[in-house]
Amino acid sequence: MSVNWKAFTQQISHYQSFVLVSHIRPDCDALGSELGMAEVLRTIGKTVRIINAHRTPAALNFLDPAEAIEVLGDHVEPEDISCDCIMIMDTSAWAQLGDMGDVIRAASCDKIVLDHHIGEDALNATMYKDYQAEATGHLVVQAADALGVPITRSMGMPLFAAIATDTGWFRFPSVTAETYRVIGRLIDAGVVPSEIYGDLYERDTIGRLKLRGTILSRTEAELDGKLMHTYVKKEDFAACGAMPNDTEDAINLTLAVQGAQAAVIFVEQLKGGFKLSFRSRCEMDSNEVAQLFGGGGHRAAAGAFVEGTLEEVQNRVLPAVRKAVQGE
Question: Which residues form the DHHA1 domain (predicted)?
Answer without folding.
Answer: 245-324
